[in-house]
Design a protein that fits this description.
This protein has 329 residues and is an alpha/beta fold. It has 2 domains: 128 residues, 3-Layer(aba) Sandwich (D-Maltodextrin-Binding Protein, domain 2); 113 residues, D-Maltodextrin-Binding Protein, domain 2, CATH 3.40.190. It is built from 11 helices and 12 strands. Strands 1, 2, 3, 4, 5, 11 and 12 form a 7-stranded mixed beta sheet that branches. Strands 8-7-9-6-10 form a 5-stranded mixed beta sheet, with helices on both faces. The N and C termini lie far apart (82 Å).
């Protein structure tokens, strides 16, 4: 079927055009803003919020870390009502640089990297991790702990001074409790000089960097070294096994636990919201999540400052003049 439009006389078209001209000229829409002055659309409150990035120092394989991070990302995203991404730079220095250049708004780090982030990236140390640690023989919940020089029960050595020229095992030159604090104690006792960077090889005949406390304990049991160090933040079983099979000749501390640092440029609203979300992890039901992801002895976060939490570590670093030298594998 074909539709046909009825033809209108030319006079009708002229009449319509005239009416339109009169309406425009009369300003019948004068109560509205002229088109030229209409403001551009403004963002609304429902616009997607920017992503928050949290950097975490490497503690496991990237695959396992990414798997463990998913539940924490989901928890924080729901609390903040904005996306959260947890990233894992391949080095400690990479975490610090993420804060320094604004690639991350926050970071989870151990004590020595925390001190470096504060010094080199202007980061703010805001939360300390309270852990289940053993101090002496007592299990406690604290944001600090101690480490101990130990020898075999039948060892003739009674003090650190007796170990001059002997062999020792230390877990790592990057360890706060297993290297920085023990070296600081030796400086304090006058066994190592104050006026230059501390080098334990200036006192011991050999220093085995064993790779961990358990490995140092095995070396001591096997008679490969004369002494080693154990810390109160390792697993309680390992700690008590070591103390049951050794004799303590010296201790050092308090040693600060891990903590949370915020980037210098983070806005106050985001910082407060993220702090609140992290503090919500203190709920007993979230403890397993944090123990799986951050630390197997995590109890809760507590507010702190760099001046408070890192005071003892900064004193150790000042006396030893040690530098954080990270060796890539």
């Amino acid at each position: 079927m074909t539709l046909r439009l009825a033809r209108r006389p030319a006079s009708w078209l002229a009449t319509v055009a005239g009416i339109l001209s009169l309406l425009l000229a009369s300003g019948c829409a004068s109560d509205q803003e002229p088109a030229a002055t209409v403001s551009p659309p403004q963002p609304t409150a429902t616009a997607p919020a920017s992503k928050i990035v949290i950097a975490v120092q490497p503690t496991n394989t990237p695959e396992q870390l990414q798997t463990d991070a998913k539940a924490l990302e989901q928890f924080l995203s729901q609390r903040l009502n904005r996306p959260v991404e947890i990233v894992f730079p391949t080095t400690y220095a990479g975490v610090i640089e993420s804060l320094r250049f604004g690639h991350a708004q926050a970071a989870f780090m151990s004590a020595w990297p925390l001190a470096l982030a504060e010094k080199r990236a202007g980061a703010e140390i805001a939360l300390a991790e309270v852990r289940e640690v053993v101090i002496g023989q007592e299990k406690q919940e604290q944001p600090y702990y101690f480490s101990y020089w130990v020898v075999r029960p039948d060892s003739p050595y009674r003090t650190l001074a007796d170990l001059k020229g002997k062999k020792v095992a230390l877990p790592s030159s990057l360890s706060t409790s297993g290297y920085v604090a023990p070296m600081a104690r030796m400086v304090e006792l006058g066994l190592l000089p104050k006026d230059k960077p501390t080098d334990p090889k200036g006192f011991f005949s050999d220093v085995l960097l064993s790779g961990g406390y358990a490995q140092g304990w095995e070396a001591l049991k096997a008679g490969q070294v004369d002494a080693t160090v154990i810390a109160g933040d390792v697993s309680e079983k390992l700690y008590r096994d070591v103390l049951a099979g050794t004799r303590v000749i010296e201790q050092q501390g308090p040693i600060p636990s891990h903590g949370v640092a915020f980037a210098k440029g983070i806005d106050p609203q985001t910082k407060q919201a993220l702090t609140d979300a992290l503090m919500a992890l203190n709920e007993p039901g979230q403890r397993d999540l944090m123990r799986k992801f951050v630390s197997g002895i995590f109890v809760r976060f507590e507010p702190t400052t760099g001046q408070k939490h890192l005071a003892s570590l900064n004193a150790f670093l000042q006396s030893t003049q040690l530098d954080f030298v990270e060796r890539l594998r």
